[in-house]
Amino acid sequence: MTTADRDAPVLTADELRELDAHWRAANYLAVGQIYLMSNALLREPLRPEHVKPRLLGHWGTSPGLNLVYTHLNRVIKQRELEALCVWGPGHGGPAVLAGAWLEGSYSEIYPDVSRDEAGMTRLFKQFSFPGGVPSHVAPEVPGSIHEGGELGYSLAHAYGAAFDHPNLLVACVVGDGEAETGPLAASWHSGRFLDPVHDGAVLPVLHLNGYKIANPTVLARMPHDELDSLLRGYGHYPLYVEGDDPARVHQDLARALDEAVDLITDHQRAARTGEATAPVRWPMIVLRTPKGWTGPGEVDGLPVENTWRAHQVPLPEVRENPEHLAQLERWLRSYRPQELFGEDGRPGDDVLACVPDGTRRLGSTTYANGGLRLRALPLAPLEDFAVPVDKPGATAHSPTGLLGDLLARLMADTARERNFRLVGPDETASNKLQAVYESSGKAWQERVLPVDENLDAHGRVMEVLSEHLCQGWLEGYLLTGRHGLFSCYEAFVHIVDSMVNQHIKWLKTAGELPWRAPVASLNYLLTSHVWRQDHNGFSHQDPGFVDHVLNKSPHIVQVFLPPDANTLLAVADTALRSRDHVNVIVAGKNPGPDWLSLDQARAHCARGAGVWDWAGTESGDGPDVVLACAGDVPTQEILAAAGLLRRYLPELAVRVVNVVDMTTLLPSGEHANGMSDAEYEGLFTADKPVIFGYHGYPWLIHRLTYKRTGHDNLHVRGYKESGTTTTPFDMVVRNDLDRFRLVMDVIDRVPGLAVRAAATRQRMADARTRHHRWIREHGTDMPEIVEWQWPG
Amino acid sequence: MTTADRDAPVLTADELRELDAHWRAANYLAVGQIYLMSNALLREPLRPEHVKPRLLGHWGTSPGLNLVYTHLNRVIKQRELEALCVWGPGHGGPAVLAGAWLEGSYSEIYPDVSRDEAGMTRLFKQFSFPGGVPSHVAPEVPGSIHEGGELGYSLAHAYGAAFDHPNLLVACVVGDGEAETGPLAASWHSGRFLDPVHDGAVLPVLHLNGYKIANPTVLARMPHDELDSLLRGYGHYPLYVEGDDPARVHQDLARALDEAVDLITDHQRAARTGEATAPVRWPMIVLRTPKGWTGPGEVDGLPVENTWRAHQVPLPEVRENPEHLAQLERWLRSYRPQELFGEDGRPGDDVLACVPDGTRRLGSTTYANGGLRLRALPLAPLEDFAVPVDKPGATAHSPTGLLGDLLARLMADTARERNFRLVGPDETASNKLQAVYESSGKAWQERVLPVDENLDAHGRVMEVLSEHLCQGWLEGYLLTGRHGLFSCYEAFVHIVDSMVNQHIKWLKTAGELPWRAPVASLNYLLTSHVWRQDHNGFSHQDPGFVDHVLNKSPHIVQVFLPPDANTLLAVADTALRSRDHVNVIVAGKNPGPDWLSLDQARAHCARGAGVWDWAGTESGDGPDVVLACAGDVPTQEILAAAGLLRRYLPELAVRVVNVVDMTTLLPSGEHANGMSDAEYEGLFTADKPVIFGYHGYPWLIHRLTYKRTGHDNLHVRGYKESGTTTTPFDMVVRNDLDRFRLVMDVIDRVPGLAVRAAATRQRMADARTRHHRWIREHGTDMPEIVEWQWPG
């Protein structure tokens, strides 16, 4: 394209008039939502009582978002695209709501907010109004898959939506504030993992409006050549649209969008016909327009348009200050609403000329209501992967190794549908899931060397050293109707604490909207866990993610701690079939004893917690003590303790309880999986001492059970932040979760036992001393520990 | 510099020999640490029993780190620099330990690991050995301020160390794996906030060794021109050093380091003499050398050197496999240890030729033991900022507004010392701390427009829309001996959950090392909190950070919830004077009632929790019920409930307890601030109902108090994940924390009151209904709520 071409108008006068009408209408509606609760069409002069008593919302970003909505409409309609838009500056809710209302999507879902004057009035009043709609692009907004609250994840969500959707164009508006965040900065490289053959395209629109809440932005202020260099360094081909003259910007943006879509189409055609093999450098648009464009230029003598002062509500005192009121009225009338809306309040033909039809509308695309597109996974029978267990603890397997086999099959069985992805930060093999590579390589578009293994331009295993990208990609993938699993080192999943917060909030709210179809759950496999960080030590030890997610809306969250390989298969199957949940599975990767056959594992998972009769010594009179456990390492130590008790105190009636689903501990009224009090007491008794070996921070068990009868009898051992690079058994000794300490706990807590069992207690203390001595000398665990087997 | 210059050797033959000797010695020591527990100098042929039984550690990154250590030594010594190095790939602990041992720093701190054969043997054996040292660059490593565990924060730490240290050069090795993370990607822009006048310099060394655990890295595989474009886009001037011929790489790296230091010196001189005003584009080095360089080329027929297989332990079966053992011996002898170490095991003259003296050594710099450099803050008397409170609740102030005045004074009083910074993600003004701008502007090196306010190339308020950068900068600043405060929206501080995990782990371990001097605490001001997110709603509501930090080593963490303005001043003063803690302060920014005079606030904070006699109605017989509260909004609701009880049930003996320091609720054995059981029962009674209004998730209170007598009588109200864009009072109603519900709770729980107070209970229920009706109609809170004042 020559320079002359670049300046030639691409829009006819009619098109320009129509696009500008749509944009002005959207701007009018955005301002109306922030300010008005009546007199929506300005049929009478504006009076204070037309204005909301509390003015809340974000104007600054809205005109830019409106402009993008307008122009996406045009290009979608003209080219019959399937498109979705992720609105990074989603706090500009008024803009996206305006676009959805104008195109009719909004009224189809919310008929009381009809596309007429009455509906417009409701649209205005409900915005940021108690009982109304939130100020952000939230689940309530048609067409959205991205909450505009916490910034940084828009581009990762956009890529997640595009993976395995070859016909989809995902536009993504990235705010220049958001662009300063780490997750967003990392997301620019996502194109290096995007397959032009099987994936759709992402078109980033970097919106440089220059200011955040109170500051200029880095990307808007750095020199142009540096910005250009940065974006090319990210692997993009930037197209620039800059200005504050609407007519000119309309022409330039239309031209840039045409060019971008042409380039995308060319790239995809070349890749899909096999013409091209080099990595694609995808186009993007840099849109530089004023913050709060078309809003008040000055308020109270201070500049507002094109400054940070336009961020929220530019005229804050409209009800009290007549000058502000007059200025608001001038502002609203500057859009000439009478040209835009009919007598009945319906948008006029000019306004609607650019709007596409049906599900091509951004507010009606099924991609943004992914549950509508969801197909169940073809999960093979677990019998194909399970290990035989005739006698508890006689064999050992790597739980995640078995899961790897299941994932390999699943990858193979979804090869045509392409609706499952495995994501992880460079840890798939470290987490012992490498069997999956038999069916799918790792997504990779850059250069491949002979020494490389399992890289594949069409792979559906995603590995990048960024938990943020893994999480963001997967969220976008799930919300657009597919399935996935995130495998992560347990400690470092805290990196995405805040992202999972927001996803759980999304699922909670979406679940309350009848029009949103259920989506596949977000499944975490946390492994390389706190007890087995042999190479890495203290920095890699943190079991607190379970605590974190259990603070959130409990009905969304499920937490599984499978004690062995077959049980991991059973919970993974449950998780992969579930909908609208966040499932956290914590499992070991090192070979550990097999306790349960597949059938036993299934039954155990169905109950969530149960007595392991074979491990206890109680007769019909009930137990003297309950040994409870959750997690693979605590289960092994509890069973070892049960074995020691069996040997040294055979007259003691011991019950062993294993908890695989942590939420069963919650009262039945607080979680669907929660046990009734009767069930709880049936397992743990109401009055006997319970020694509980737990995988994570011990107080979590107290927090889950504080309402239960007998909770004063709970004595919990778990991780108490004592760690370093050491042996597996030394880790449990350091945290008082070892078998010897657990036996001492039993002796100390069963009434009357202290005197009778003094010799056994001393024997246990001696064993701990023996451990300390041995390990300092040999650097390994004692043979009696390494070779231990369940004695039953 | 011409091309010819670029190829000309900068090192003499002697220098080259000496540098290579140092590098080979460091490599030898790194391999020795991973493998050997005896025969350190290979005086006899290597036998299996010389090798550790468990082989743990990371070889792959070590030769590159060693190379950087060697060459930094040279440039530091030659130019008499004050320097510090942040080792991003800190899992290469063997390398940094090797460098510190060679230069003597290590033995000075740990005399038993002497710089001779016995010490070398200990150095080898202790590495990743139970009871020894961790495998990473951890607090135990002299010269370190950065744990090499969780990746992504090295560059932010480096900038934090450089701020306000004008004479310091901070080198920072960035691994190409780490470079894929979000926080690291954002950190490259930190130079745009670095003041060449008052700050030191950061010299990033991007080490492209090509592979992560199991994958190629993005930055190593993207085309060179794209990488160059990216780094220039980040505002850097990249110098490239590439190769696998040691002699050539030595020359090139020496040349690049000379050029980089020259450029830095020129930039600083120009800025400091006022010659230059344009933003500086700082040099950086791109070092491309093989992963596992000089290690085994092939093992068992598979390539290892220069592949991901070199990541951890290249020869895994040395004790069992004679071929591996022989290969290890050849590898170790390839460094020619007999040339490097004397008969006594001490490094020879060639090895030590490049090593600087005293505190110029990287392992001995006082900058990395920042407590040695720490000076107490000049904190003004709180009387200068406090508000008079003659009668509780008669006046109202913004707590953070008052704190802003304190911070403004502190900024002014540290203008010369420059040892205090305020960081925040674009929220300083939003959080009502804007008074601070009277004394310091916001750090900013890019272009300034006439419309901008408070930007200052020399400012010490740091605002960037990245919580990761705020946290990383501040951690680096604190660990090198200065003070700071991080002001953040409460919900979004979860973005740095994993970073604060690591910082708490660092402080815990550092606190156990007698040679590490105490550093200033990491202080959080969390505001714009869950109850006051009027503009933003659900996505901005999360009070769970308190739960998160309280899972960590409790003696490091303090959590304060000041109920009013004067109390915030008192806790801020405590926090800013404290050492080696993480202090979390949650406070309101909106004007709220003043409850305590400064003296009362100080006394209250000193106790951490106390009875507010003026608010209760008990006589000498003790209370019928305790109303407890923590947090500004719950305190107001509890007091309003107390007022309602006073009016409608005046005969009820009510006690009001306010908790300002959450850790007082913990048992005294678990936290230094914890109450004894007697103190706890003195406040809360052992047997009376306690209605507790808490700022965050209610179960936290149960988790802190489950060991207390009477904890079954606790009934806690708090945030239960019910939120949207609505009014302040509607938020508390939605979460059952409102005054009316609290009175109903009292009536439901005080024995015998239900019948007697049925009419009052109905009145409360009616008030809630009235609220729902009013708010739906008016969109505001009822006048009786807005105008409420403490009736006492």
TrEMBL record, chains A, B:
It comes from the Bacteria. Its cofactor is thiamine diphosphate. Residues 12-372 form the Xylulose 5-phosphate/Fructose 6-phosphate phosphoketolase N-terminal domain. Residues 589-790 form the Xylulose 5-phosphate/Fructose 6-phosphate phosphoketolase C-terminal domain. The keyword Nucleotide-binding does not apply. InterPro entries: Phosphoketolase, THDP-binding, Transketo_C/PFOR_II, Xul5P/Fru6P_PKetolase, Xul5P/Fru6P_PKetolase_C, Xul5P/Fru6P_PKetolase_CS, Xul5P/Fru6P_PKetolase_N, Xul5P/Fru6P_PKetolase_ThDP_BS. Pfam families: XFP, XFP_C, XFP_N. Keywords: Lyase, Thiamine pyrophosphate. Its EC number is 4.1.2.-. Belongs to the XFP family. NCBIfam families: PRK05261.1-2, PRK05261.1-4, PRK05261.1-6. This is Probable phosphoketolase. The lineage of its organism: Bacteria, Bacillati, Actinomycetota, Actinomycetes, Kitasatosporales.
